[in-house]
Amino acid sequence: MLTPQSLSPIHAPANARARLFVVVDTEEEFDWSAPFSRESVQVTNIQEVGHLQSVFKRFGLKPTYVVDYPVATTAASAALLGLVAAAGDCHIGAHLHPWVTPPFDEPLAPEMSFGCNLGSAIERAKISRLTEAVASGLGVRPRVYKAGRYGFGESTAGILEELGYDVDASVIPHMDFTPDAGPDFSGFSPAPARFGRARAMLELPCTTGFVGSLRRFGEPIHRAASAAWLAPIRPVGVLSRSGLLNKVMLSPEGNSFDEMRDLTRALYADGLRTFALTLHSSTLKPGCTSYVTTAAERNDFLATIDRYCEFFLTELKGETTTASDLHGLFMAQLL
Question: What pTM did the predictor assign?
Answer without folding.
Answer: 0.97
